[in-house]
């Protein structure tokens, strides 16, 4: 004969179907509110990745130009949203041996336009940014667009080759 009834009950244990349905409905509403914010965060990540890739390519081109003592160019292909660095020979022809692997912008990120200072602006085709052996980089403003209305402005500083990144479209 049992003397202790701890843990035993005559009532049925578990959740009813109505309780489970209410919990699932609450989770659906919460996820519906949170996921749009999370997706914009993930797309912002693609924009940051593309910015880092471009910054790396500018730094690499500049350092190779200084190390080798010759002109290097960073080519931006606005049609395919890709870019690559190339050593330029003395007769202004690119050498196939010194071309760095072609990279593309991350995800759905694309080039909007590139403005080479003082007054050249391109929305299509290819743009070549030159890095000379003394460490100077051709100044430029690059506009990147991500999914939705996300736009970033990248300004290449001529003396140190650094990128200044700003949110939105700046002239």
Q: Regions with pLDDT < 50 over 5+ consecutive residues?
A: none
Rg calc: 27 Å
Shape: elongated
Run of helices and strands: HEEEEEEEEEE
Question: Helix segment count?
Answer: 1
- Termini, distance in Å? 88 Å
Mean pLDDT: 84
Number of strands: 10
Biggest sheet character: 5 strands, antiparallel
Can you give a write-up of this model?
The protein has 171 residues and is α+β, with helices and mostly antiparallel strands. The protein has 1 helix and 10 strands. The protein has one helix spanning 17-68; strands at 72-77, 82-88, 94-99, 103-104, 110-116, 120-122, 126-131, 140-145, 151-156, 163-167. The strands form 2 sheets. Strands 1, 2, 3, 4 and 7 form a 5-stranded antiparallel β-sheet that branches. Strand 1 and strand 2 (82-88) form a beta hairpin. The model has no long low-confidence stretch (mean pLDDT 84).
Key features of this structure:
171 residues, alpha+beta, five-stranded antiparallel β-sheet
């Amino acid at each position: 004969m049992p003397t202790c009834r701890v843990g035993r009950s005559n009532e049925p244990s578990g959740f009813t179907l109505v309780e489970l349905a209410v919990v699932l409905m609450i989770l659906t509403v919460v996820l519906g509110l949170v996921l749009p914010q999370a997706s914009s965060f993930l797309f912002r990540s693609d924009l940051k990745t593309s910015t880092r890739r471009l910054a790396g390519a500018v730094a690499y081109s500049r350092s190779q130009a200084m190390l080798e003592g010759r002109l290097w160019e960073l080519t931006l292909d606005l049609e395919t949203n890709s870019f690559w660095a190339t050593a330029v020979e003395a007769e202004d022809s690119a050498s196939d041996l010194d071309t760095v692997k072609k990279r593309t912008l991350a995800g759905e990120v694309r080039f909007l336009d590139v403005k080479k200072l003082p007054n050249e602006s391109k929305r299509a085709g290819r743009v070549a940014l030159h890095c000379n052996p003394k460490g100077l980089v051709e100044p430029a403003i690059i506009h990147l667009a991500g999914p939705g209305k996300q736009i970033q402005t990248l300004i290449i500083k001529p003396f140190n080759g650094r990128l200044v990144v700003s949110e939105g479209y700046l002239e």
